[in-house]
Amino acid sequence: MKPQYVLPFERPIVELEEQLARLEAQPAPVPTTLEAIRNMRVEIAKLKRDVFENLNPWETVQVARHQDRPQARDYIELVCDEFIELHGDRAFGDDRAINAGFAKIDDCKVLFIGQHKGRNLKERNECLYGCAHPEGYRKALLKMELAAKFNLPIVCLVDTPGAYPGIGAEERGQAYAIAVNLREMSQLPVPIICIVIGEGGSGGALGLGIGDYVGILQFAYYSVISPEGCAGIMWKSVEFASKAAHALKFTGPDLLKFGVVDEVIPEPIGGAHRDHRAMASVLKSTIVRNLRALEQIPKEELLERRYQKFRRMGEFEELAAVSDA
């Protein structure tokens, strides 16, 4: 599928694809044209592979934010055989940035939770570009506790630049709501799968990120702060966002090396935004595979492994100071 929005490093690919489309549109192509079509298809596939296998961290951020990238509701439609949405936090309202509901994936019954940014302007305003309020995190936790009551595993798709930073959100306990989610998710006695599908920004992402399996898509990122936020603090200007992206080490390979994620999930050649169905198929198989593995683990062992998993993060080495005396 041709993306509607083209990133700078995608332009050579799109130009070749446009040439290919013109060749394929010819009503009665001659043998030389057919040969040119075959050669161009090979050239496009090679160029896609060369470009997307060598993205730097800032370019990865741009792909993670791509307007055509599949979002939570897209995956709900493509991955789930059934989905019944649940609403509200029983306290304030229904945060549209977080979609939650019971779902069936193959023969697995789960609670499916996803952060959704919105496709058009109206939907983005409703979802606040994926930035959830406290009621969104309370809604998610309420549904997770309901799933635990019925012994259903939980699947969370993370895609947010961060929790909503407005005054109203702070007044209603944004930090507290996220902190409660961290505490309670660490103790839920059912398997939890968390996958970063786009942006994984700050506490807004971590509020749905405590799981037995944490995966990240190949061109997603997971970070304590956005590159623009880091650049604003460290260098007093967002112009240094690219430099910050390199310093933060928040792409899949680095996160895997640090033990923050368990797996980097490959995307179709050219990124998930070019083939929603192929990406959904890979995501579905990843979810089902890990669900079946986690369901074999006794509850006590599952909780202990989850606890140790997050305790191991952030390890450092202390060296004794050497005196000159």
Task: Give a structural overview.
The model has no long low-confidence stretch (mean pLDDT 90). The protein is 47% helix and 15% strand. Strand 5, helix 9 and strand 6 form a beta-alpha-beta unit. Helix 3 packs across helix 11 and helix 6 packs parallel to helix 8. By secondary structure, it is of the alpha/beta class. Strands 1, 2, 3, 4, 5, 6, 7 and 8 form an 8-stranded mixed β-sheet that branches.
Summarize the SSE layout with pairings.
Layout: H1 11-24, H2 31-52, H3 57-64, H4 72-79, E1 82-86, E2 98-105, E3 108-115, H5 121-127, H6 134-149, E4 154-160, H7 167-171, H8 174-185, E5 192-201, H9 202-206, E6 213-217, E7 221-223, H10 227-234, H11 241-248, H12 252-258, E8 263-265, H13 276-294, H14 299-311
Parallel strand pairs: 3-4, 4-5, 5-6, 5-7, 6-8
Antiparallel strand pairs: 1-2, 2-3
Helix pairs in contact: 1-2, 3-11, 4-13, 6-8, 10-11
Order of helices and strands: HHHHEEEHHEHHEHEEHHHEHH
Beta-strand residue fraction? 15-25%
Given as residue ranges, the uncertain stretches (5+ residues, pLDDT < 50) are none
- State the secondary-structure class: alpha/beta
The helix content is 40-55%
Shape: globular
Distance between the termini: 69 Å
**Biggest sheet details:** 8 strands, mixed
Tally of separate helices? 14
Kindly state the number of beta strands.
8
What Rg is obtained from the alpha carbons, in whole angstroms? 22 Å
